[in-house]
Amino acid sequence: MMLSVKANDTVFLVDFDDTLIEAQPDPTNFEIPEDLRFTVQDLSQKPWLRLIIVTGRSVAQIDQFFHPVRFPIIGCHGCEARFDTEDASKDIHPVIPEALHAQIMSIVQHYPNCRIEDKRYTFAIHACAEDQPLLRGDLDKAIGNHRETYSLALYGSCFEIKPSSISKGKTIAKILQEEPRFSGLKPVYIGDDVGIDASLNILLEFGGALISVGNAFSEHGFGLKNPLEVRDFLRSIT
Predict the structure, then answer these.
(1) In the chain, what is the greatest distance between 2 CA atoms, to the nearest angstrom?
(2) Domains of the chain by range and CATH?
(3) Long-range contact pairs involving 78-81 (C-beta distance under 8 Å, separation at least 24)
(4) For residue 35, what pLDDT is reported?
(5) 188-228: per-residue pLDDT in tens?
(6) Closest by Cα among 118, 162, 205 to 126
(7) For the purposes of burial, counting CB atoms within 10 Å of the CB of 20, is it exposed (0-12), middle (13-18) or buried (19 or more)?
(8) CB atoms within 10 A of CB 189
(9) What sections of 70-154 are H helices per DSSP?
(10) Which regions of 55-208 does DSSP assign to beta strands (E)?
(11) How far from 203 is each of 17, 37, 62, 210, CA to CA, in Å?
């Protein structure tokens, strides 16, 4: 990877799964690598360095992984955010309606082998291959009355119901425009979803850069090969 950045005029926006950490056998229950814990702790102590984790996971989940260290996070694909580390996260989108939430809970009870992540704004279901066709149909029916506002996405073996109007790119752009602490900073996004999540391209309008990770690296010929390289890169900018 060849990229020239000055940390004091840059905000680094870093994805979590498959970017900061490797793919996990059980995405709902694992320990983060110790080198990542130390790196994040070190980065959090640099007042001149702006780092935001941008993830499909909730702010609460990320805080739990790195406790007691806290740092700015955009969570649930852009549905919530927290920048002042002493504050609670703020809603960018309302939580899932009670009726839809009840339907989802009723459905997953029929799939005892699935693992669920109830993130309030979104709902993720990790399913085994044999359950996926039926589960997809059931979840698709559940969002039938909410199709204008919610959609069903598939990430590997994980189904996720999330707001249609929300995206990482939209939320990051809103924050760059409205948060004084990030005004005028160059956004550098690092993630395995570069080239997949088209909403991220809006960051180029802010003079930013997109750094691909993993599979996207081979397609773009520019980026970082794996989470280990991402962690090494973050350590290098301190």
Answers:
(1) 52
(2) 7-93+166-236 (3.40.50.1000), 98-163 (3.30.70.1020)
(3) 78/54, 78/166, 78/167, 78/168, 78/169, 78/170, 78/171, 78/172, 79/121, 79/122, 79/162, 79/163, 79/166, 79/171, 80/121, 81/171, 81/175
(4) 85
(5) 999 999 988 999 999 999 999 999 998 755 554 568 999 99
(6) 118
(7) buried
(8) 27
(9) 98-108, 132-142
(10) 73-75, 80-82, 90-91, 115-118, 123-126, 150-155, 158-163, 186-191
(11) 20, 28, 23, 8
pTM of the model: 0.91
DSSP character at residue 17? B
| Angular region, 207: left φ>0, alpha ψ -120 to 50, beta rest | left
pLDDT tens digits along 25-53:
888 888 888 888 888 888 888 878 889 99
92-95 CB contacts, 8 Å cutoff, 24+ apart: 92/166, 92/171, 92/174, 93/121, 93/163, 93/165, 93/166, 94/121, 95/120, 95/121
Structure-token match 């070190």, residue found: 42
Q: Which residue has tokens 């459905």?
A: 107
Q: Which residue has the tokens 């900061």?
A: 20
Other Cβ atoms closer than 10 A to 70: 17
Given a contact cutoff of 8 angstroms between Cβ atoms, the answer to whether 213 and 222 are in contact is: no
Q: If you average pLDDT over residues 56-79, what whole number do you get?
A: 93
In whole angstroms, give the CA distance from residue 148 to residue 226. 36
The model's pLDDT over 147-200, given as tens digits with 9 standing for 90+, comes to 899 999 998 889 999 999 999 999 999 999 999 989 889 999 999 999 889 999
Q: Which of 126, 119, 125 has its CA nearest to residue 166?
A: 119
